[in-house]
Design goal:
With 262 residues, the protein is mostly helical. The chain has 13 helices and no strands. It starts with a helix and ends with a helix.
Length: 262
C-alpha cells in the first residue's frame, strides 16, 4: 500500500454521503489492519518499519456498532486521538492501533540503541528516549485497566489480544534495556577477581552485596541470574581475606538467605 494512497483516504474538506462513509470506513479499516500487521511483523523480525505515523492521513476506525449499522461517526486522526482528554470513543480495535503505534518507536529505539552501543555513543538521550516510551506505554495500560474490566477480555478476543500486546511491549522494552547495558554485574565481578585485592576500592563490597541481594530475590525470573549471583559471591569471597567490609557483607547475605543457599 503506497503512502500517497494512504494520504488520500481522508482528504480534508471532502463532504461524503452515508454510502460513501461506509465505503471509506472499509478502506480505513483495511489500512489500519495493514498498519498493525506491519508493526507487529517488524517487531517480531527486527525489520525497519514500512509505514510511519508521520505520513498517515487516515482517521481511526469507527466503533463496531456504528460501522455495522452504517451510522457515520467522525473519528479523529491517530496523533490527536492519543492526546485527547476524552478517550470514550476508543474501541478495542483503536486501542490495538494505539499500542501498535507505541511499538514503532520501541523498535526504532532498539535499532538506534544498538548503533549507539556499537560506537560507544550512548548518552542520557538514550535513556530519556527509553523512559519516554515506557511512560507512554504505562499510561496506555493504565487507561485500558480503567476502561475495561478484566472480565471483558473473556468476551472480546480483540481486547484480549490488545492486552497481550501491551504486556509484550513491556517485555520488549525490558529486552532493549538489557541490551543497552554494556557490562553486566557478572563481568564486573570477574574483573574484580582478576585484579590484585589491594587495587580494588575498599567500598566495592557494598554495590556487590546489593547486586547479590537483587539477583537472589529474582533468580527465578531469569536463568542467567543464578550464574551472575555465583560470580558476585565468588568476588566477595576473594575480597573477604583482605577486606573486613566484604567479610561482613558476605556474612550478612548468607544469614539472610541461608535457606536459598542450601
Amino acid at each position: 500500500m503506497r503512502s500517497d494512497y494512504c494520504r488520500e483516504i481522508d482528504v480534508p474538506g471532502c463532504n461524503r454521503t452515508q454510502t460513501d462513509w461506509v465505503e471509506m470506513e472499509e478502506k480505513r479499516r483495511t489500512f489500519w489492519v495493514a498498519y498493525v500487521l506491519d508493526r507487529f511483523v517488524c517487531i517480531r523480525y527486527g525489520c525497519p518499519l514500512t509505514l510511519t505515523e508521520q505520513v498517515v492521513m487516515v482517521r481511526l476506525p469507527a466503533p463496531e456498532v456504528a460501522f455495522q449499522s452504517g451510522q457515520p461517526v467522525l473519528m479523529g486522526f491517530l496523533i490527536e486521538s492519543i492526546t485527547a482528554d476524552d478517550q470514550s470513543s476508543m474501541s478495542p480495535f483503536t486501542e490495538c492501533i494505539v499500542l501498535a503505534n507505541i511499538s514503532g518507536p520501541a523498535l526504532s529505539h532498539r535499532h538506534q540503541s544498538l548503533v549507539e552501543k556499537l560506537y560507544i555513543n550512548m548518552s542520557q538521550n538514550t535513556w530519556d528516549r527509553h523512559k519516554w516510551i515506557g511512560d507512554e506505554l504505562t499510561e496506555r495500560i493504565a487507561l485500558l485497566l480503567v476502561k475495561y474490566a478484566p472480565a471483558s477480555e473473556q468476551m472480546d478476543p480483540l481486547l484480549l489480544f490488545t492486552s497481550m500486546v501491551a504486556q509484550t511491549t513491556v517485555l520488549y522494552l525490558y529486552k532493549i534495556m538489557n541490551s543497552m547495558i554494556p557490562v553486566t554485574a557478572e563481568n564486573q565481578a570477574t574483573v574484580i577477581m582478576q585484579l590484585n585485592c589491594f587495587k580494588v576500592h575498599p567500598l566495592t563490597p557494598i554495590p556487590l552485596s546489593l547486586c547479590a541481594e537483587f539477583l537472589n530475590s529474582y533468580r527465578n525470573l531469569d536463568d542467567s541470574f543464578a550464574s551472575q549471583l555465583e560470580h558476585i559471591l565468588k568476588a566477595l569471597r576473594s575480597l573477604k581475606r583482605v577486606n573486613n567490609l566484604a567479610q561482613a557483607c558476605l556474612h550478612s547475605f548468607e544469614l539472610d538467605n541461608v535457606d536459598s543457599l542450601l
